[in-house]
Design brief:
389 residues; alpha/beta; Aminopeptidase; Alpha-Beta Plaits; 2 domains; 6-stranded mixed β-sheet; 4-stranded antiparallel β-sheet; 35% helix; elongated; hydrolase; ArgE/DapE_CS
């Protein structure tokens, strides 16, 4: 049984890695593949297609459809490989020493492959409690694709009992993660020849004031670290990550774009921190820019937003996750996942638990250990046994 399961996982992961599902491309060929696989087992799923018609998530129910079930959730998109030094084609699975290499093997096609590989065992088990597969898109660019699916889930007459999001945690049960709010600030200055600098409005220099304030507030957040926190970085973080501006050395820059983010421990803290910065900039920076020229100022736009996850350690979904994982520890992580949206949008209790290490995610020669995929298969097998009672 174990060898057959491992072979199914390996074969399905090899098939999934072949699809180039970087977030700026369609994931429909991969969804087509999954649907064909499920159809061969007598199953159909519900597609939730985006506005462009080029992306789709998939909701699948195995077992009775009139009962509340447990969800296994994973995304299909991967991060780009451009500029990375891979030793082989990143969209071809390569196995060496029981390590499976390829883009998305850890983040997170390995988990999706395990879930699909376990479907025959789900069908053979005569489930009394259904198992749902929630397969999404565009997680890597702000948990975009899961949202339309969760709106559908929230409208269903029966709400799922809980959700396991299979991001790479080395099969440790994760009960919390930070939220994130990202903002783009576009400074509109006034260009002039640099010999008459006082006649211009220097967008970069005003942007520097914002960057300095972001750094000051980041230091305050770091000084307010949570004692005894489960987080490896025990405080909310704030940083400027991208700056673009200027055209030539002898031109007063009329434009500068600054992107910054907060990763907050509190459920809504990320947005609260960035909203406060925006209010400060509008009050302290923008009036001086407009005083020098009325058409100058700052435009702010949201880049991405998702809340923090904070599931109680004694919640039923945590107890189940530990039972299925065969371990009794739990932790919190700094990276974000779709789990918090299952909670905030559909009121579905959620934890994060999946194969592989986050240290491998997004890297060249990304890999997942076969032993991790097998441990995940054992997790799902225990889930199946629980749902068959």
């Amino acid at each position: 049984m174990q060898n057959q399961r491992s072979d199914r996982i390996r074969k399905l992961l090899a098939d999934l890695v072949v699809f180039d599902t970087v977030s700026d491309r369609s994931n429909l060929p991969l969804i087509d593949y999954i649907e064909r696989y499920l159809a061969s087992l007598g199953l159909t799923g519900q597609r939730i297609v985006d506005e462009t018609g080029q992306k789709s998530s998939l909701w699948v129910t195995i077992g009775p459809e009139d009962k509340a079930g447990l969800v296994l959730s994973g995304h299909t998109d991967v991060v780009p490989v451009v500029g990375q030094d891979w030793s082989h084609n990143p969209f071809e699975l390569v196995e060496r020493d029981r390590r499976l290499y390829g883009r998305g093997t850890t983040d997170m096609k390995g988990f999706v492959a395990v879930c699909l590989a376990m479907v025959p065992e789900m069908l053979a088990a005569d489930l009394k409690t259904p198992i749902n597969l929630a397969i999404s898109y565009d997680e890597e660019i702000g948990c975009v694709g899961v949202r339309p699916m969760l709106r559908e889930v929230a409208r269903k007459p029966i709400r799922p009992l809980g959700c396991f999001v299979g991001e790479p945690t080395q099969m440790q049960v994760i009960i919390g993660h930070k939220g994130k709010h990202g903002v783009r600030a576009t400074f509109r200055g006034l260009a002039r020849h640099s010999s008459i600098t006082p006649d211009g409005v220097n967008a970069i220099e005003y942007a520097a004031d914002l960057i300095t304030e972001i750094r000051r507030r980041a230091a305050l957040l770091a000084a307010d670290a949570e004692q005894g926190s489960l987080y490896d970085v025990p405080h909310s973080t704030l940083l400027t990550s991208i700056v673009h501006g200027g055209a030539a050395l002898n031109i007063v820059p009329d434009s500068c774009v600054v992107e910054f983010e907060c990763r907050g421990i509190g459920i809504t803290e990320s947005r609260e921190v960035t909203d406060a910065i925006i209010a400060w900039a509008k009050a302290e920076i923008e009036p001086d820019m407009r005083k020098r020229h009325p058409e100058c100022g700052i435009d702010f736009e949201e880049i991405l937003d998702y809340p923090a996850l904070d599931t109680a350690a004694d919640a039923a979904i945590v107890t189940l996750a530990k039972q299925f994982a065969g371990r009794n520890d739990h932790a919190k992580v700094a990276f974000g996942t779709e789990a918090s949206l299952f909670v905030s949008m559909a009121d579905v209790p959620s934890v994060v638990v999946g194969p592989g290490s986050i240290a491998q995610a997004h890297t060249p020669d990304e890999f997942v250990e076969m032993s991790q995929l097998e441990a995940c298969g054992a997790f799902v097998a225990r889930l199946i046994a629980h749902c068959a009672k």
